[in-house]
Design goal:
Shape: globular
Strand order of the largest sheet: 16-11-10-23-22-21-20-19
CATH architecture of the largest domain: Alpha-Beta Barrel
Largest sheet: 8 strands, parallel
Number of strands: 31
CATH class of the largest domain: Alpha Beta
Number of domains: 3
Structural class: alpha/beta
Helix content: 25-40%
Distance between the termini: 63 Å
Bound molecules: acetamide
CATH superfamily of the largest domain: Glycosidases
Radius of gyration: 27 Å
Strand content: 15-25%
Number of helices: 18
Length: 633
């Protein structure tokens, strides 16, 4: 009987252990709580590293935990927290993987390479209480649960993109962004450095690029509707990175095992370069100015557009290739990453179509369309990039008219470009806007800061993304990214709001095993990280807790349907202009919306009696606009 009781107790304990989820993002390959008391971190704990490289990572860990705990740690060869670079490689975990074992008396992280130790440290930090994120000394029970972890990434390219042209982000902001990335095991920072609204990288041999191209006239208010710049106005809104700044940021990223992918976007998106050197475009238009976010293009849908100013490099001009040779010489020397991104997106061909030199070049080269002319341009750019010892990657438009021989493709208009490139035997990075564009709306436009976005990508949609389509050889998919365009993102806090939690979802997608997806478990982990961000002072969006309101017509009556992305929330509403709270009417099914011009439905979400999402106030008129047409029987 006694034996049976012990057995039952053991079964119960192990079930309890298994049912406790860890909150690590990205989700590790394998995680098991083990049956012993937690490791207690205290002033007597010691941190060890078996080699100089391991000690470097150990010091990073020491710095982080000293800041929050106040305990001072000196790094030595052996410690109660021990970081070990394996003498014999563990084939299962590869170059970026690690094993982590926590017992009552010791924490052991093993890896084949320093990157693996660094990622093991990130997981360890996430096992400590959230107060470990505190920028100043905090009080907490500094324990680490006993556990055993084996972990390694699904993809070798796990990226986030930041556009620093539309809004300039100072060096410290860029570092802050990179630091956040590193906590979630991202390893590529895609730095969109040039565009119509600002050239942000110093090119010493082409000083006007920053003297002129990094400055625009000051405008306030909504992006896209600003007045056009006038020649008589002083361009006072300036910002660029000196080469010293860039070296500092590259080193900062490298310490966090992040490579930087610099993007010089050509041949379109080039008002800033053309404003600096008008001879670079077909029209040689010296009136082109760096855009302050005014409207200079007509967008017709389906990817069709017209540029009202000539913001396009002239593919028939040798001056352009000389210019690009200078740019890429300096870019290649600054960035150790093997790839350079040469853009290629949204290039307007209208000025090429009307230019005699472009027409003559097309005839000479036997190019039948302007897509082939852009392909001619990209192939020449690839030669330049290769001559600097680098590989070219470009947006999926570079497929049109024929892909450059060795180019990799970043698929953004969907997955199709990536599929086509992979079938042609080219490497691909997936970043389809429908899933992973973090500039797009993540909640109801009625309550989001940007109400005019052309699309919405809610968190659950991002989380559903699968980067490897069934029909292609997966070895061509290097990995994926989430991309943040910053037309409507003026500050780093807004950048964080747009990035997180969607980049927690993509962290899982690009690191964790494909079959480990579980939406409810993800949202539970997400909430733990929100708590960490609150303590650390970082911003994020809670849009996934907001009510989602759609409309329907039932028997001629207008009904509002309310759902939420995060499960387990209660929904309360009013129709009488008062603010809903947990004593208001509880949502149990579609709400009939009475007739009346001024009728507004106000909806809020709660959990365990506490407000959870934001209140969405939605007029009858707006609900009518959202009526989902009934499917034909
Ligand atoms: C892009 O979003 N234009 C690449």
């Amino acid at each position: 009987m006694q034996k049976l009781l012990i057995l039952l107790a053991l079964v119960f304990a192990s079930t309890l252990l298994q049912s406790q989820n860890n909150s690590i993002i990205p989700q590790p390959v394998s995680f098991t709580y083990t049956r012993s008391l937690p490791f207690k971190l205290n002033a007597g704990s010691t941190i060890g590293g078996n080699t100089a490289e391991a000690q470097k990572v150990a010091r990073q860990l020491a710095d982080q935990i000293t800041r929050a705990t106040g305990y001072r740690f000196t790094v030595r060869k052996q410690g109660s927290i021990q970081l070990t670079l394996n003498k014999t490689a563990n084939a299962e975990i590869g170059d970026e993987g690690y094993t982590l074992n926590v017992t009552t008396s010791a924490v052991k992280i093993n890896a084949n390479k320093p990157a693996g130790l660094f990622y093991g440290v990130q997981s360890l930090l996430q096992l400590l209480p959230p107060e470990i994120e505190s920028p100043t000394v905090a009080t907490a029970k500094w324990t680490i649960p006993a556990c055993s972890v084996v972990d390694y990434p699904r993809f070798g390219w796990r990226g986030l993109m930041l556009d620093v042209s539309r809004h300039f982000f100072p060096k410290e902001d860029v570092k802050r962004y990179i630091d956040r990335m590193s906590r979630y095991k991202y390893n590529v920072f895609h730095w969109h450095l040039t565009d119509d609204e600002g050239w942000r990288i110093e090119i010493k041999s082409l000083p006007k690029l920053t003297q002129i191209g990094s400055c625009r006239v000051q405008r306030y208010g909504k992006w896209g509707v600003h007045d056009a710049p006038k020649k008589t106005e002083a361009p006072t809104d300036c910002g660029f990175y000196t080469q010293e700044d860039i070296k500092e940021i590259v080193a900062y990223a490298a310490e966090r095992h992040i490579q930087i992918l610099p993007e010089i976007d050509v041949p379109g998106h080039n008002s800033a370069a053309v404003a600096s050197y008008p001879e670079l475009c077909c029209t040689q238009d010296s009136t082109v100015m760096v855009s302050p976010g005014h409207k200079f293009a007509e967008w017709y849908g389906n990817g069709q557009f017209k540029m009202m100013v000539d913001n396009t490099l002239d593919p028939s001009s040798e001056k352009v290739y000389t210019f690009l040779d200078k740019v890429f010489t300096e870019v290649a020397a600054l960035f150790p990453f093997q790839y350079i991104h040469a853009g290629g997106d949204e290039c307007y061909h209208g000025y090429w179509e009307n230019d005699p030199d472009c027409q003559a070049l097309m005839q000479k080269e036997g190019l039948k369309t302007t897509h082939e002319l852009q392909s001619y341009f990209t192939k020449r750019v690839e030669k330049i990039v290769k001559s600097k010892g680098k590989k070219l990657i470009g947006w999926d438009e570079i497929l049109e008219g024929g892909l450059a021989p060795e180019a990799a493709v970043m698929s953004w208009r969907g997955l199709e470009g990536g599929i086509e490139a992979a079938k042609l035997g080219h490497f691909v990075v997936m970043s389809p806007n429908d899933y992973v564009y973090t500039d797009l709306l993540q909640g109801d436009p009625l309550v989001e800061p940007d109400q005019t976005s052309y699309k919405s990508v809610r968190l659950q949609k991002t989380y559903s993304f699968e980067p490897v389509p069934a029909e292609i050889n997966p070895t061509y998919i290097l990995g994926g990214q989430a991309n943040l365009w910053t037309e409507k993102v003026p500050t780093i806090r807004q950048a964080e709001y747009m990035t997180w939690p969607r980049a927690w979802a993509t962290a899982d997608i690009y690191w964790s095993p494909r079959d480990s997806k579980n939406w409810d478990a993800f949202t539970q982990r997400m909430e733990k990280h929100m708590e960490r961000y609150d303590i650390g002072g970082f911003n994020y969006a809670r849009s996934s807790f907001d009510p989602i309101v759609t409309g329907s017509m039932v028997n001629g009556k207008l009904m509002a349907n309310v759902t939420t992305e995060v499960n387990g929330l209660e929904i309360y509403y009013t129709l009488d202009e008062s603010i809903p709270d947990k004593y208001s009417r509880k949502y149990t099914g579609p709400i009939e919306i009475p007739d009346g011009k001024q009728v507004t439905l106000k909806v809020s979400t709660y959990r365990n009696g506490k407000p959870s999402g934001r209140m969405v106030p939605i007029s009858r008129e707006e609900i009518i606009k959202r009526v989902v047409p009934a499917k034909a029987p």
